[in-house]
Structure formats: C-alpha cells, structure tokens
Amino acid sequence: MMMCKAATKLMSKQLDAPLTTREKLSLRFHLMLCSVCRRCDKQFEMLRKAGRAYGGAAADKAEHHCMASEEDMKKVQEAIAQAEERRQG
C-alpha cells in the first residue's frame, strides 16, 4: 500500500502533469483509506482552481501587454501559504 508521503507527491505531481493510470489508481485507493490525505487532496484541488483562475487572468492581461500586479501575486502567495498551513495543521 502507498504511504502518505508518496500520495502527497502524486497529488503535487498532478498539478503539473497527468498521472499514469497506475499512479491514478494507487492514489485513488490510498485516498479511499486515508482521511488526512483526502483533506490534503481537497487543498490541492483548491490550488488547482486558484491556478486556473489566476492563469486565465494572467492570459487576459498578457493580451493587453500588462504584467500581473504585485497585489495579484500576493493574493496567490497568501492562498498557497494558507493551504500549506492547513495541510500541516
């Protein structure tokens, strides 16, 4: 059975690239049995959504030849820090 450390690595990996079928199945099975990792997966999902929302906003700004504001960057960094605190807490 997969350990929690390996499960969190896969959760993080899937933010950047698709998992293999074997990785998906292993992670799914682990999440069925581990409530702590299920909570962590929900936090990663929140990060995915924030990233998509931010990525869309950044793409819109790029069309107008603008960079993301420092305020936008701080919001994203704060959201990431809060998710990390929840994961550790």
Number of E strands: 0
Q: With helices defined by DSSP (H or I, 4 residues minimum), what is the helix count?
A: 4
Would you identify the regions where 5 or more consecutive residues have pLDDT less than 50? 62-66
Residue share in β-strands: under 5%
Radius of gyration: 16 Å
The average pLDDT is 80
Distance between the termini: 24 Å
Q: What is the molecular shape?
A: globular
What class do helices, strands and sheet pairing give? mainly alpha
- Percent helix among the residues? over 70%
How would you sum up the major sheet?
Answer: none
Spell the H/E element sequence: HHHH
Describe what this molecule looks like in 3D:
This protein is mainly α. 83% of the residues lie in helices and 0% in strands. It contains four helices and no strands. It has helices at residues 4-16, 21-33, 35-63, 70-88. It is globular. Mean pLDDT is 80; it is low at 62-66.
Describe the secondary structure blueprint for this structure.
Elements: H1 4-16, H2 21-33, H3 35-63, H4 70-88
Key features of this structure:
89 residues, mainly alpha, 4 helices, 83% helix, globular
Short description:
By secondary structure, the protein is mainly α. It has helices spanning 4-16, 21-33, 35-63, 70-88. The model is unreliable at 62-66 (pLDDT under 50).
